[in-house]
Amino acid sequence: MYKILIYLYNFLPKSLRKYITKKTTYYLVNKYADLKIKGIENIPDNEPVIFIGNHLSNLDGLLLSKLFEERNKKVLFLAGVKLKGEAITRAVLEIVPHIEIEPNKPDRKALKNAIKALKDGYSILIFPEGTRSRNGEMLKGRSGVYLIAKMAGAKIIPVAITGTEKCLPVESSGKMSKESFIHSEVLVTFGKSFDLQDLPESEEPVDEMMKKIAELLPFEYRGYYK
Length: 226
Hints:
- This protein has helices at residues 2-9, 14-32, 59-70, 87-93, 108-119, 144-152, 164-167, 205-214; strands at residues 33-38, 49-53, 75-80, 98-101, 123-126, 155-162, 184-190.
- With 226 residues, it is an alpha/beta fold.
């Protein structure tokens, strides 16, 4: 039955698909995520910035996209092309403004598009770990975010997320179609913006960026950055 519904869904006009997806997913977010937000005042109204966050669940991007939309903040998400390989994540991507990126390898086109977006007045959001954490702890960040920040010269805002790994847990096979919502408390904390020149000199500058996220998280979530 599920496969039949997905098959029929794909034949709907895109505008109708987006309407149904948004109504359904936003309903689920509101029902299951007991959301609290801290540091909302750190989000500038007009200035384009780079948001960097830890990544715990498929819920992260959807929840943050909803939050930015409600604040009329134009934000593009860097999303792995593999998300289009599954029907549900493909549908969600239709309502989340994004730039596609090839994971696990330098993607010059995606980096170029991200820099152009910033210069055009859009903010971007990146999960520098490149994948969802399977145990709730931070993974080592990848260098792409540093290159974008360096070339664009934009300010960076760290985003710390807790609770989404309980609200929409990662299924052992990684398939979103097998994941289900559980009512949970979710906290999103926006830190103060910083520039690359504010960071200590390091052979791994991306680690100094990631530490800004870790500082906003409870100790047990910090993982590689404890």
